[in-house]
Structures are given as structure tokens and as C-alpha cells.
Specification:
Length: 479
């Protein structure tokens, strides 16, 4: 231990972070082991670089790109419509191509589920939230059903990759083990964890940039952002295994969106027809300040500007016809070419870190735990969408939000993205499908369709007798 301690002290000292050991003498063996393990999980040279460059440089105002200038230089991307006229390829061409990719077993599905879900305030990983409006099925169950249905339809295994973080890993693994017991169709699942970054003090002076302690024996750690997926896919060996299996594309989405059309063949088809290395779904923003990333084109390259970075004056700009100049909102649904991911993973610093000021509980110099109300810390996160400018032939596909986007972010009572709003969006979609199939749903009747029964209006039409009337809450599923 003495040897180990000397080595740790040296590593920490060279990063200017030896203070994290200040309670060492008070700790028992177990606590010391915890602290050592936390310290070993961190890439200290990177932390030092970030603290030096980003925090000490300009602690008060924040640093990073000049978003105002970038927004002024940006233009709107030319997007393909998922369904509609005027595209370079027809929808049926895209569907055929996407279906072939699925049949040939070239596609994997990946959900990022490593976030802490602080706004929702649910006691378990967000994927375990029972969102089904009638069935109370969890987000994970809805995704699995859609994937199993797709696998069956195209007679091909589609691997499911679930990225967790230390905050969500153990419970997610346990949950999938429990589910798997009852579901023989749940076989091709890989669960791997992303890395963490320490939160550092945002105060000025001597304390600036010091790593915070969550307790005397634990660092204040946060998952390293959904961009951590790149490193995690690579380090866990998942990327290499997929390549060995002949998988060429990964369909990516976030755990909070139950309406995502997983492995949509038309979306996959456009991606392939364009020879794109990364294709992203967007929606037309209805509000200038909508909380979605803004997809823009800067000097010919696609890029996403996070809503919190887009200056309000740029967000409000309108074209002559009244439409928003920066209109394309990212919904964090992408397809990645695996060779592209491998190339980017091999390149150091291919994803920059973003800084966010947050309120983070910490132990002060006397060992007392403080729970601040105001932001006191800086968190470092990587965003997966920062890969977009590097992608060859990057492509943007516009979808109808009513058919694919309703994220669960906040607890009941908030102004947006609450469980009730998500459920309502799901019910409205399923009501539309039922009515398009020539059946009827009574006013205010809640309906839900399991993706294994039908995952779109066309499939539902094949299964539902026209004239059927639903007058009570109904959950359509395969028995
Ligand atoms: P959000 O930015 O909405 O964060 O994540 P969150 O953790 O879910 O919720 P809050 O902000 O704490 O309330 C968007 C998606 O990215 C994933 C989340 O799990 C979610 O699917 N994510 C986020 C990760 O997988 N890892 C991260 O480090 C951050």
C-alpha cells in the first residue's frame, strides 16, 4: 500500500490534485480502497489539461468557441424528409436498401443509458421507468419489443448495445438478467459502462479547478457525457466484436425517447444511399428556444450547437417567410458507420469536452458535507454529436416529431417533457394509427400498441378489422 500510495501521490501532484488525499489518515482500509479505485478511474493528465486550459483561463465568463460568431456564420442544413417528395432518392428506394441491410445482418442498435436522470428524480435507471400509458411497460421493454419485432421481420439477429455508467450499471445489468429469465428472445445484448470525470470547484483563487470530494473517501464523479460512448465502445472491445461479426452500422438513440423508430429501414436506407458516415434525425423546431441541439452547416460541414450554447438573438432570427433561420432540432437519433467510429476512436481528442456549471454536493476542508443550491462546480462532458463535422457525407433527415420524438426528462408538474406529456404523445400516435386503419377510438380513450403487434400505421392496418371500436382503455399486443 505504501508503494501504491507514493505512486498515487506523485500522479495527483503532477496534476495539482493531491488535496483529494487530505482525509487519508482518517480512512479505514475499505474507504482507502474506494478512494484508490476512484483515483485510478480518472485520466489525470486530461483533467489537468482541462483545468489549466478551460477553467483557469477564464473562470468567470467561461471559455470555448465564440458561439455568436459561429451561429452568424452558420446556415441551415439541407435535410431529406423521411417521408415526402423532393428527395434525391425515393422513400421506396430507401426502404428497400434499409431492409436489405437489416436482412444481411449489418445493423446493431445502441441505446445510451448512462445519464444520472437528475431532473426526473426516479430512484432507478431511467430505462426502468414504467412509461407505457396502459401497459406500464418500461422504456427498456418498449425498446426490446421493437427490436425483437424487427429481428423477426427481417429474420436476422440485431445486437442490442446498452451503454450504462457507474451510476446505472449494476441495476441495469440486474434488470436485464431478470427480464431475460422471462424472455427467451432477449439474447443478443451487450451492456457496457462509460467512463467518469471528476467535478471540479468553480470558485476562484486557490480552490479553482480542484477536484471535489463527495465524501472523505469518494471523488465527486459524473459520467463523461454521451460522447463517452465512443471511448467506451472501443475500450470494452464492443466495436471490434461488432466488426468481426460483419456489422457495419449502429443505430443510436437515447433512453428517454419511447417513440423512437428503432432501426427504421427508410432512415437506414437514406444513410446508405448517401454513403454517409453519420446521419442524424431532426425535427423542425416550433419554438426558437426549444431545448434541442441545433443542426447547422458551418463552412460546408454539419455541426450541432447545443441549445444552451446558441445565443438567443441567433435563435430568434427568422427568414422572410417567417420560418426560423436555425430550424433543425436534433433529437439525438443517429446512424453511425462503424469504420467511422473506429477511425475516430483511434484519434486522440476527437471529441472535445464541454463544461457545465452545476450544483454538486461536496465535503469541505473540515470534512462537513455541503449541499449547495447554486452552481459551485464544473462538470466535463463529451457529446456524441460532435462527431458530425468529421463525418464524410454527413446527412440530416427530417422526421415528424409526432411520429418519433417525445423525451422523458422531467418529473410530473414541470412545464415540459413530463411522464404525462410523453404518455399523451404515445396515445395520440396510436389513436392516429387506429383511425387510419379504419377503426375508431372513443373520445378520451387511452390506447397503446405494443411494437410486436404493429410498429407503424401500415402494419396495424393489416391486423385490425376496419370498423372495430375501442371504447375502453386498450393495450394491443400479441398474446
Ligand atoms: P440528458 O442530457 O438528458 O441527461 O441525457 P440525463 O442524465 O438523462 O438527465 P439529467 O440531465 O440528469 O436530468 C440524454 C441522454 O444521454 C444519456 C442519458 O442516459 C440520456 O439517454 N447520457 C447522458 C449518457 O448515456 N451518459 C452521460 O454521461 C450523459
Amino acid at each position: 500500500m505504501a508503494m501504491e500510495l507514493a505512486k498515487l501521490r506523485a500522479t495527483l501532484a503532477s496534476a495539482g490534485q493531491q488535496d483529494v488525499l487530505r482525509f487519508w489518515d482518517d480512512l479505514n482500509d475499505l474507504e482507502r480502497a474506494e478512494l484508490v479505485s476512484d483515483i485510478e478511474s480518472i485520466d489525470w493528465p486530461t483533467v489537468q489539461e482541462l483545468v489549466d486550459g478551460m477553467i483557469k483561463g477564464d473562470m468567470a465568463t467561461g471559455v470555448g468557441p465564440d458561439w455568436q460568431a459561429l451561429a452568424a456564420r452558420s446556415t441551415s442544413p439541407s435535410a431529406i424528409r423521411l417521408s415526402g417528395e423532393g428527395n434525391r432518392w425515393s422513400e421506396s428506394q430507401a426502404r428497400l436498401r434499409g431492409e436489405q441491410m437489416l436482412r444481411d445482418g449489418r445493423v446493431a442498435a445502441m441505446v445510451v443509458a448512462g445519464g444520472q436522470g437528475t431532473r426526473l428524480g426516479f430512484d432507478h435507471p431511467k430505462g426502468m421507468y414504467p412509461i407505457g400509458p396502459v401497459s406500464q411497460r418500461t422504456l427498456f421493454e418498449i425498446f426490446i419489443d421493437r427490436l425483437v419485432a424487427t429481428s423477426r421481420r427481417y429474420e436476422t439477429p440485431i445486437p442490442l448495445l446498452v451503454m450504462t455508467s457507474p451510476a446505472t450499471h449494476d441495476e441495469t445489468v440486474e434488470y436485464f438478467n431478470r427480464l431475460g429469465g422471462a424472455r427467451p428472445d432477449l439474447t443478443d445484448v451487450t451492456i457496457f459502462s462509460q467512463g467518469v470525470m471528476p467535478s471540479v470547484s468553480a470558485s476562484s483563487g486557490r480552490e479553482a479547478g480542484k477536484v471535489l470530494l463527495a465524501s472523505k473517501s469518494r471523488l465527486a464523479l459524473n459520467p463523461d457525457g454521451h460522447g463517452g460512448a465512443l471511448r467506451a465502445l472501443d475500450r470494452s472491445g464492443t466495436l471490434a466484436k461488432l466488426q468481426q461479426r460483419g456489422i457495419e452500422q449502429i443505430f443510436y438513440w437515447q433512453v428517454d425517447n419511447p417513440m423512437v423508430s428503432i432501426c427504421d429501414p427508410v432512415f437506414l436506407g437514406y444513410h446508405a444511399l448517401a454513403g454517409s458516415e453519420m446521419t442524424s434525425q431532426v425535427i423542425a423546431k416550433t419554438e426558437p428556444l426549444e431545448k434541442v441541439g441545433n443542426v447547422v452547416s458551418v463552412d460546408g460541414a454539419l455541426q450541432i450547437i447545443e441549445y444552451s450554447d446558441l445565443p438567443e438573438s441567433s435563435a430568434m432570427e427568422r427568414n422572410e417567410d417567417g420560418s426560423l433561420r436555425i430550424w433543425a432540432g436534433s433529437i439525438a437519433v443517429h446512424v453511425f458507420d462503424i469504420a467511422f467510429l473506429a477511425r475516430m476512436a483511434a484519434k486522440a481528442g476527437s471529441l472535445p469536452f464541454h463544461v457545465a456549471r452545476k450544483a454538486v454536493g461536496y465535503v469541505d476542508g473540515s470534512g462537513e458535507f455541503i449541499k449547495p443550491r447554486e452552481p459551485n462546480a464544473i462538470k466535463f462532458e463529451r457529446f456524441i454529436f460532435d462527431l458530425l463535422p468529421a463525418a464524410r457525407n454527413g446527412l440530416v433527415v427530417e422526421i415528424d416529431p409526432a411520429e418519433g420524438f417525445s423525451p422523458l426528462k422531467n418529473a410530473s408538474g414541470a412545464a415540459e417533457y413530463t411522464p404525462e406529456m410523453v404518455q399523451d404523445a404515445m396515445v395520440q400516435q396510436h389513436r392516429r394509427w387506429i383511425e387510419a386503419a379504419g377503426a375508431r377510438v372513443g373520445d378520451d380513450v387511452v390506447v397503446e400498441i405494443n411494437p410486436m403487434f404493429a410498429w407503424d400505421a401500415c402494419q396495424l392496418r393489416e391486423r385490425l378489422a376496419p370498423g372495430t371500436v375501442f371504447s375502453d382503455a386498450t393495450y394491443l399486443h400479441c398474446r
